[in-house]
Amino acid sequence: MTEEYTEQLFLQEKPTLALLAINSLKKTYASVITKEINSTFAHTTKILSKMEEHGLVKFTVEGRVKYVELTEHGIKTVDSMKNMMDELIGNSGRENKNPFGQFFSQPSVSLSPDAIPLSQTIQEKIDNLRSKIERIYIIESESGADKETLYRKLGPFNRDIKIIANLIESSKDQIDESVIMSHRDVTRRLGSIINK
Question: In whole angstroms, how large is the CA radius of gyration of the chain?
Answer without folding.
Answer: 18
